[in-house]
Fold this sequence. Notes:
Blueprint: H1 2-18, H2 20-56, E1 60-63, H3 70-82, E2 92-94, H4 96-107, H5 112-116, E3 125-128, H6 136-143, H7 163-205, H8 207-215, H9 220-262, H10 273-296
Antiparallel strand pairs: 1-3, 2-3
Helix pairs in contact: 1-9, 2-7, 2-9, 2-10, 7-9, 7-10, 9-10
Amino acid sequence: xxxxxxxxxxxxxKSLRGNFxxxxxxxxxxxxxxxxxxxxxxxxxxVYNYSNKVRDDVTIRxxxxxxxxxxxIADIQRTITDTPGVAEGSLQFxxxxxxxLRLEKQLGxxxxxxxxxxxNPLPAxxxxxxxxxxQTAAVAAAIAGLPGLxxxxxxxxxxxxxxxxxxxxxxxxxxxxxxxxxxxxxxxxAAVLLIGNTIRLSIFARRREVEVMKLVGATxxxxxxxxxxxxxxxxxxxxxxxxxxxxLSYQTLLADRVESSMTAGGGPTAIAFPLLVLLLIxxxxxxxxxxxxxxxxxxxxx
Length: 302
């Protein structure tokens, strides 16, 4: 068995050397595909994690009238607690004083905007979340119109959960993900075809040898395996070089800046770089095996 595998590997390496120019072209193509795929996976994983964070952070705010009576406030609180779909333990009462203190913390006490305000214009509110972010709109609608709530105004719904912003973020994230997937599929097909062409040239140069092997009883897999190893070597080589480029470009120059500016405070992060490298190498193996395997089918009909 060891001798047979040694034979397969030696034959694959001889073929790679014999078709050096096409081998380099195949490796470079896989390199480009894997490099773009690596950037796409990193960006896609960040977008996916960011969209999940946006969904998880959606908070419903029910603003109270300044004239709301203690009984109305208690009734609103009880209604929210009893509403199906409200996350247990998420309900929080924000008084007018708490609201202005929160705004001061966000803007700074010396903010010009705060200096222009007279008194405390912010209403008290209840803040809570839905168990399932997809049910946020339904939960908010169940609370709307309760006595003691401020009436909604054009552009100022009550309860409010930032539907416009959340929907835009999620829609944009979905669009980016689809574009990245589409680019990945197109590039992967291009890599498979070029590796297939590389293997086809190698097979054509050895077609008589393949015919003789088939005629003396060699199985399809015995003939196919050296060429599949050849394609897998091209795929892995391209993935390894792409990983090196990613380490020099994305990981070194971009990752720290992106994570420091966009993920401060424990925000979403991209995929771990070692896992990304592993995925690229596995993808290179798969592309190489697929490209050579598909090409071999027509030459095995002897």
